[in-house]
Input
Amino acid sequence: MNPSFDLSGRVAVVTGANTGIGQGIAVALAAAGADIAAVGRSSADETAAMVRALGRKCELVSADLSSIAPVGDVVEQVVSSLGGLDILVNNAGIIRRADSVDFTEADWDAVIDTNLKSVFFLCQAAGRHMIARHEATGQRGKIVNIASMLSFQGGIRVPSYTASKSGVAGLTKLLACEWAAKGVNVNAIAPGYIATNNTAALQADETRNRQIIERIPEGRWGSPEDIGGAAVFLSSKAADYVQGHVLAVDGGWLAR
Ligand code: NAP
Output
């Protein structure tokens, strides 16, 4: 492997790593050499088995990220059990669908709290650790936020999701501006249409499924593995001069 992409000796926190894109990212980072802290509210035993089969450590950290209450403990637990925190992947997220005229405050708050508020405060907790460590050792930290096509486009019937993911793109740029000179790279990945639980309803809708595939130049849904390579790149030394970028991994969706 090109040494610039080698993550040996690095510790990566991945939120929502039990399934879908988070699992794909955790396994890709482990294959590149990182130890993983899988943070979430459901058991990530399957992911842990996949990471350990690659010869890497996997620490399971229980946290419900619908509030910021667990954020400080997450960082403390990872640093004390795995000896540091080099990479944070903010992947956990939810979506609620309803016409905007009917959209409820509960569906607004649930999505914004999980997808945007917890993302910022996890960045803050990890960023404090990374900045202090960079001052002491010169080692850079990497933050990768999971954005969306709806960081660029409007979408329909998902107002809080679009607001949250547009917010994630803006936050990523803001944090890059504040922390680039302090030893932290902050970037985002915007997945296109990826076959996971999050998109199960769309995949099951014959008309929407056909319309989506017809618009994707690659002509297929993406898989969680498709996102892994971008996460390894943005977490690695190879991306030391990449800052505030939102990298679309979308089979060409935005190019159309
Ligand atoms: P998924 O299979 O539904 O996974 C979502 C993950 O987030 C799960 O691990 C879930 O844990 C976790 N999560 C949700 N609420 C949480 C909470 N309160 N506390 C802790 N963890 C929580 O969906 P996915 O498609 O892999 O989505 C992963 C990320 O990619 C999300 O941010 C999503 O918005 C984004 N994304 C997905 C697509 C796509 O096409 N699939 C496209 C663009 C962006 P549980 O299993 O416990 O619910």
About this structure: The chain is about 45% helix and 15% strand. Residues 16, 18-22, 40-42, 64-66, 91-94, 114, 146, 148, 191, 193-194, 196-199 surround NAP (CB under 6 Å). Residues 3-255 form a domain with the Rossmann fold fold (CATH 3.40.50.720).
